[in-house]
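cache lookup: miss for this entity combination. No prior model stored, computing from scratch. Input as submitted by user K.M.:
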Amino acid sequence: MKLAFPSTLLPVCLGLCLLLSTNSCIDVIDLNTVEVGEVLVIEGAVYAGGSLPSVTIRRSGAFVAGPDGVQQPVSGAKVSITEVGGQTLELEEVDAGIYQGSTPIGTTGKEYTLQVEVDGNTYVSLTETMPERVALDEVSWEVRELTAESESGNIVTNYQFVLLADATLPDLEEGPYLRYRTESIYEYRERSSASNISASYCYIRDEVDLNNLAIIDGKNINQGQLINQPILSKLVDSKFTWGVCFTAIQQSISANAFNYWTSIQNEFERTGDIFESPPAKIKGNIFNTVSTKNDVIGLFSAIASDSVKIHAIGLEVREIAGRTCQCQCWPPPQNESCSNCLSLSKSSLNKPECF
Amino acid sequence: MRYLLLFFFIFGGLPWLYAQNLSLTQGIEQIEQTFDVRIFSSEDIQAHSQLVSIDSSLQTAEEALAFILSTTNYSFLSYRDHAFVIAPKKQLDQEYDQQYFQNKSDVQSLSQRIQEVIPQIQVGTSEAYDGSNILKVEGFISDEATKEVIIGATIAIQSLGMGTMTDEIGKFSLALPPGEHQLLLRSVGYQDKTIIANVLSAANLDLELAKEALQLGEVVITSEAQNKNVSANDIGLEALSIEEIKMLPSFLGEADVMKSLILLPGVSSVGEGSGGINVRGGTVDQNLIMMDGLYLFNSSHVLGLFSLFNSDVVKKVDLYKGSMPARYGGRLSSVLDVELKEGNYQKFSGRGGIGLVSSRLTFETPIQKGKSSIIFGTRFSISDYLFNVIDVANIRESSAFFYDSNVKVTQRFSDRGKLSLSGYWSQDRFKFSSEFDFRWRSRGANAQFSYLLSDKLSLNVEGVLSDYQSRWDETESNRAFEMQNGIQYTKVRPEITYTPSASQTINIGMEGNLYTVNPGQIAPLTDSSITIPVNVDDEFGRDIAFYVNDEIEFGERISLSLGLRYVIYQALGPSDVAVYAENSPRLVDNQTGLESYQAGEVITSYSGLEPRASLRFSFDESTSFKMSYNRTQQFINQLSNTAAISPVDIWQLSNSFIEPVRAHNYSVGFFKNLANNLWETSLEFFYRDIENLIEYKDLANLLVNTHLETEIISGIGRSYGSELSLRKTSGRLTGRLGYTYSRSERKTDAQFLDEVINGNNWFLANFDRPHDISFTMNFQANRRNNFALNFVYSSGRPITAPVGNFSTDNILNIPVYSDRNSFRIPPYHRLDISYTIGQSHRKQQAWRSSWGFSVFNVYGRRNPFSVFFTQSAFQSPQANRLSILGSPVPSINYNFNF
């Protein structure tokens, strides 16, 4: 297995090793972490602004399964969301493990709780208050130059596309707590040729923010002005050749939700540093009320969103990052998509307004 | 089991040449081997229980035989050139006349020489004799070389079945009938000494002991009185002399007090790269570590690779694992009392050493000969000079610098009192390139006054000032910051010791401590840093303890120590104390207000009694049973939820939210010496029951947290286990095999769901290591060549490991961790060896030196310091082993004294 050398750990470890004249500090070992049972993973949300409340229930996958591990959906659960002092909305299972309410219920300032009954246990969330929507003033982008040492020891330059957000934050006693999601659609042009005289332009939906976690505690922002806050970083690739339309979504979330996402963020930044807090099962705001067994991971959120679209024009990106190409390279790529862009997943010929 | 067999094989199979504390049979065998002679004796000699010694100055078999038989009822005669016959003196005298044995006259002349070997001292004068049946003999016992008085040295008069011990100023007092008495003098780290005192009248008698044989080049290897482990009142007391510590293989050749302790049963550590020790299942901060009465809040240099103690100025190390006299308090698990040397009262002298990483130098000299002295010792790292010449930028910009210095001035007042003033300061810097930078420093001063008020009453007053500061600079990341914390305290401890008789000692005293804790402040280091400045207010607290301890012996068989300590602790203002909503989890969100307290105002107060008791019952001279009970309380705790104790970990005083941690400690032990104390064995059991244990919520953030109380919850704990020790105490080959079974568990009873840890069930502490084996061996080939070996093994420590993964929203592969500390990392084991070419023993030689060679971690075991899990995007997680030492570490060092 290949050696991973986390950035923060590296200096502490190297410092000690240096002193001790040792040859290495970290290597990969096999540790028999026997499976000790699955936990229930519950995600639920109510939205301000008309979206339907939804809840997803699954079971965690095996540790060794990795990214392809199957997380079994949990069907047959009784799921309800209650507005404190108001109605209780029963959610229906619309797909395996996916439950949805029939009407939107999110109202700013109102409090909500989630209850899930499954396998003889009752899981209840803490009460979440729908926060005020914080306006996303502006979104911009820039391309940054990154230099790094390759495995062979050469200095390699890469270009990183960074999406930046500006917002004026309200002066609250705590927070506001913000989380950013980004959706993107990029333009894909077929290659004109004798056999493809009328080359088409496709617009392809891209899961651009997979594993991108951008959260902010507004209390820590000086004078409440969020300026050029990076919310997405991505290496410049062929998708930028003709342009990408980004939709930046700024979600106002509760402190509980912010803590949950912070725990997950910390998990990804874990380095094994000798002064690092020990890991623990991530706790959200949903608990088993029947037993003290720590058998659930879950988050129930009340979310108020604002969004802004921006078009990153391919030419402008390429001016900084240099040439990229999809189908117009030489020698021409032999991709089917270069003559039929609809063969690409999530592609459409409908041009979004953004472009 | 294999190691046990190896131990027996090694110790049982090798011959020895020079030794003391041997059985008579062993002594005879030794002489046979050494001088290549045959010795015949009757079988009853095997039942002879008295121990004998062989001195290396004896040149012939006749001299050696005469020497070892001098204290017995046996004599010998020679037969031809190569044989001897040993028989009872009476039998030889009655059955054989002078003519029959041509060499009988030789035997007589040897007997006379024996009298010369055992020094005779005349005490008083016949003119001064007042006709009393009991004469008072008093005086001091001091170090033969430095004239420093020896505290706790014993004098035994076996013929009278009595003995006594020197007090805090090294003074003793005996009531003896007129006539000749054989006195046996003993003290840890010194050679036993026998003298014949011819008491003619009441008088002063000052005596001297020589440093233990190892240091002076003798061939006898022993550091304790021959059955001290059996006869001492304390259970779980480990007394180490610095000579013992220096003979152990050490990391980079630096004799290390803390590392030596880890070789003792019941003592363990997390591993390289972490300071502190775990004693009998206790946390690192549950050990009271004192250097001449000064509390140390961080006992290590270079993140735990070296301890703060300079071996050249350390005189004695006592570790109380079980019974704890009432004068000690403030920590739950153990007391490490390190006593420093006094300066030489007779002449200027010095010692030092040069190693690969550090060097040290110590001077001592009389200020007024025989009256006052000063000792100054310093130690400093030289690794930074090496870094500077390495042509790698990261290394050139790194630092692993430390220094420490001790100074001690002692003034004697006639023969009744002594004043010592000592100071200590140390500084550390551990920096890697421009990425992080740790700095910490300790400073302290101690004044100690001892005075003999009367023959039975002595006074000891101690005052201490101490300051510890640490700083952590994170220089490169976008959160570049500087963080600082510290602790200061002042201590006063007056104590009176009353000795109504030789068999009873009563200590009465009080102790007051005043603490100021700076829990931390953090500030951005650069303009672009996203770190928000935070300053956590200082905390103040004081404790006052009153105590009494009565140690009494009931004849030869039973001794009892009873103590009582009463402590009052107060958390003091100024402070703004958060108020949280009742019946809600203690969270920042649930804070309802603040209560303000003025400077000096009592915020909260705790008090409690701490009874202490220990009992020894001796079945005979070589067998005893001991038991002890201690109630202990701790008002200041080090907050750390990491495996490694770091220099920047904060100390937290008890307050409105954090009650004092309290424990009941129980110990029982069986002690048996074999082969006339050649082998010491012991089996001890311990149990500790802890209340108000500080436990950390999952993913607690302890650094510069203004609401620290929201990150911790109170729990209970228990530690239990047993220690088995087998030790060979004398001969050319000495050593110890220790096995410890120890468990350390905790439990919380959280009322709120998000505070529940492991379902409110018992779980393991992160330093729990059930099995711990340590083996040390020291082979003194001759006066100058010494070989030593250590082997340690311990179970891997517990960790929390991922047992599954899940995805949520747009985030994939988030690990699901097990219950806290449900898995273990691989076990730790290591072998170290050392070889020392000792110094010359020519008395006229002014400059003496020795070379030490050692290899630490001989077979390059990559012991895991921790195992952590990383997961690259879209990849399966992997387990990574972090090893601080990954290969053998050889070293060479040069030591000298003058």
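stored under new cache key. Confidence is low (pLDDT under 50) at residues 1-18, 97-111, 213-224 of chain B.
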